Amino acid sequence: MLKNEDKDIVDEFERIFTKEHNVLLHTNIHKIEYNKNLFYVEAISQGKTILLQSEALLVATGIKPNTDLLNLQNTNIQTDKNGYIVVNEYLETTSPGVYALGDITGKYFYRHSVNFEGEFLFRTLYQEKKELLSNILQSHMQCLHIPRSPK
């Protein structure tokens, strides 16, 4: 969820978020059982077995790009090692004048993000002042990220 953020942002998010929520990092699920309307999860966290019980279970398997269907090998558009389209800080691909936005770039995976990126791209292309792209990290606690540098 925070893989594209700077370390100081990740640290602050974890500090605040863990005050309200039980967060397990570097944890592997060993076994899941469902009995009498409850989920029982056995996990290994930092070498220790832990048991969790919950009324609900959310499984997030991640996002896989489908750029292989776009025939990009016939273009100058490059993808990264995970298959996402490579863009610069202004959403321009490695093919000059061609832009990509949304989850296909592997940066922001929420629908509202692409709305913002579309507006950002319009301003970048048709206004003189170029700005850096900011984003909002969606969670129970929303975090606004305004970059200080193009990184």
Automatic annotation (TrEMBL):
Pfam families: Pyr_redox_2 (PF07992)
Keyword NAD carried by entry: yes
Biological process per Gene Ontology, one example term: 2-oxoglutarate metabolic process
FAD/NAD(P)-binding domain: residues covered: 3-106
Keyword line: NAD
SUPFAM superfamilies reported for this sequence: FAD/NAD(P)-binding domain
GO molecular function annotation: dihydrolipoyl dehydrogenase (NADH) activity; flavin adenine dinucleotide binding
Highest taxon, organism lineage: Bacteria
InterPro entries registered for this protein in UniProt: Class-I_Pyr_Nuc-Dis_Oxidored, FAD/NAD-bd_sf, FAD/NAD-binding_dom
Family of the protein in this entry: Belongs to the class-I pyridine nucleotide-disulfide oxidoreductase family.
Protein's recorded name: Dihydrolipoamide dehydrogenase
Origin species: Leptospira interrogans serovar Icterohaemorrhagiae str. Verdun HP
